[in-house]
From TrEMBL:
Function: Irreversibly catalyzes the reduction of fumarate to succinate.
Gene Ontology molecular-function annotations: FMN binding; fumarate reductase (NADH) activity
Protein's name in the database: Fumarate reductase
Domain FAD-dependent oxidoreductase 2 FAD-binding, chain residue ranges per copy: 9-454
Lineage of the species this protein comes from: Eukaryota, Fungi, Dikarya, Basidiomycota, Agaricomycotina
Homology family: Belongs to the FAD-dependent oxidoreductase 2 family. FRD/SDH subfamily.
Keywords: FAD, Flavoprotein, Oxidoreductase
Cofactor(s) needed by this chain: FAD
Highest taxon of the lineage: Eukaryota
């Protein structure tokens, strides 16, 4: 391609959506500028701990898991709840088409990351709300860090790629209704860049002011997101339509650090801890929920049944996450880190309260007998502890305190299946503008399935990057 006609694509945000868009745009022949306002790259994507979903992958086949795109679509729609049953009034917006693309391209997304980019995604676990194990991670580093860092290295190897960190995009430039570039600030100096734009600036779960506007009832809850302002106003300023903004996900398991219990920012107790066999216990030591139900259902079971406590102005709960030796071994790559952080500790089961021991014994008996769980938990993961008195007396388990936390924002800019941003008024798309990842809305309905965010970033990030490079 002649340099004279090489298109320029500007990507706002260095999370997985932005990195995927940048990669696709480079592959489609564009020159790419990737801007992130933070000096630290990777956004929330780099924190992802459970993994990315894919239906019909080689890793599933190797683990003996039978899955289909239809099953995956249905699980996503079930988790998304009422929003999937209500027809949209936004011209050009088609929720079902977005989820169809998400589910049908999920195995390709996992294959792209593992085969083309070189990320280990060979382990699958069953997360809450999923009918089967389809959330992929590697054997070593947590998936978010390994995906982001590997992808960044691949991008940096291209001569057509320019990375600008600490570059805060302050507005999108427009000419005759089309987006033509960005204005940004770096080192207190204002700059502009011309090109087609992909906004991949993430969600607003770290923006107290936006949360107060859209979900005032969540005031005081802790969050897994670092405090940071949402950048949705960049999009609305050029006429973008937002949707589902009041759908904010509460994750049931954020760790309460015993050293700083009232801290507003919490480490996520990754869902795979329950997927691999961990159980939840009430303040009095009883099981109370199917730990593998959707995030909304597990969070509701906690928040409705037990009183919250106010610790330094943070509204939280006192629930115990417990992993037996089998679950802990399966989650070993994460457990060491959580133990080092003081969030999980290894204890003799026999030193815990009689109520906890009785709950563990009853659960172990159900697993051992293969009988139906009283809370309809569909799978027991790698739980191995036997219910006999000697096994219980000898057992060492991991325990940590967890609480529901604000985690993810389902709402954002309305897009079509190619990642083009839909207009709030008059129908059609905003020319020159694409968006992908958590800044967009619609794919997850009311409640996102664990592992679907990284997947959304890849599927729609690649689509947006390709579209922006080609200009269609
Ligand atoms: C602790 C934790 C664990 C998670 N685990 C999982 C998991 O296992 N699986 C899963 O699917 N999802 C998980 N998620 C959710 C998932 O990680 C994120 O929702 C997803 O990665 C969002 O990616 P993104 O690229 O859209 O945004 P982000 O990764 O958040 O990146 C957005 C970037 O845009 C930059 N930015 C914002 N505004 C501007 C601006 N104006 N100018 C320049 N730059 C800007 C930000 O600095 C940021 O770096 C987890 C989330 C958290 C917090």
């Amino acid at each position: 391609m002649s340099p004279a006609i090489q298109p320029t694509v500007i990507v706002v945000g260095s999370g997985l959506a932005g990195l995927s868009a940048a990669y696709a745009a480079l592959q489609s022949g564009a020159r790419v500028h990737l801007l992130d306002r933070s000096p630290k790259l990777g956004g929330n994507s780099i924190k992802a701990s459970s993994g990315i979903n894919g239906a019909g992958t080689p890793a599933q086949e190797a683990a003996g898991v039978k899955d289909t795109q239809t099953q995956f679509y249905n699980d996503t729609a079930r988790s998304g709840g009422a929003r999937f049953k209500t027809a949209s009034t936004i011209p050009g917006f088609d929720r079902e088409a977005l989820v169809t693309r998400l589910s049908t391209e999920s195995a390709d997304a996992v294959r792209w990351l593992s085969d083309e980019i070189g990320v280990d995604l060979s382990v699958v676990a069953q997360l809450g709300g999923h009918g089967v194990a389809r959330t992929h991670r590697g054997k070593g580093k947590p998936p978010g860090a390994s995906i982001v860092l590997t992808l960044l290295d691949r991008l940096k190897a291209s001569d057509n790629f320019t990375l600008l960190s600490s570059a805060d995009v302050t507005s999108l430039l427009q000419h005759d209704g089309a987006v033509t570039g960005v204005a940004y600030t770096q080192d207190d100096t204002e700059h502009t860049l011309a090109g087609r734009v992909v906004v991949a600036s993430g969600g607003f779960a770290g923006d107290a002011s936006m949360l107060a506007t859209y979900t005032p009832a969540l005031a005081g809850l802790p969050s897994t997101n670092d405090p940071r302002p949402g950048s949705h106003a960049l999009l609305t300023a050029v006429g973008a339509q937002l949707l589902d903004m009041d759908s904010v996900q509460i994750h049931p398991t954020g760790f309460v650090d015993p050293a700083t219990p009232g801290a507003r920012l919490k480490f996520l107790a990754g869902e795979m801890l329950r997927g691999e066999g961990g159980i939840l216990l009430s303040p009095s030591g009883s099981r109370f929920v199917n730990e593998l139900d959707t995030r909304a259902a597990v969070s509701k079971a906690i928040m409705d049944a037990f009183p919250s406590v106010d610790e330094d102005g943070t509204r939280q709960w006192d629930i115990t996450l417990l992993l037996d030796p089998g679950a802990a071994a399966a989650a070993a790559s994460h457990i060491g880190f959580y133990e080092w952080k003081g969030l999980l500790r290894k204890v003799k089961l026999a030193t815990l309260s009689p109520e906890v021991v009785a709950s563990v014994q009853a659960y172990a008996a159900a697993v051992d007998a293969g009988s139906t769980d009283p809370f309809s938990r569909p799978a027991y993961g790698h739980w191995k502890l036997k219910p006999d008195a000697e096994s219980l007396a000898q057992a060492e388990v991991y325990i940590g305190r967890i609480t529901p936390v604000v985690h993810y924002t389902m709402g954002g800019a309305a897009i079509d299946t190619g990642g083009r941003v839909l207009r709030a008024a008059g129908g059609g798309v905003v020319p020159g503008l694409w968006a992908a990842g958590e800044v967009t809305g619609g794919v997850h309905g009311d409640n996102r399935l664990g592992g679907n965010s990284l997947l959304e970033c890849v599927v729609f990030g690649l689509a947006a990057g390709n579209g922006a490079a080609r200009g269609d």
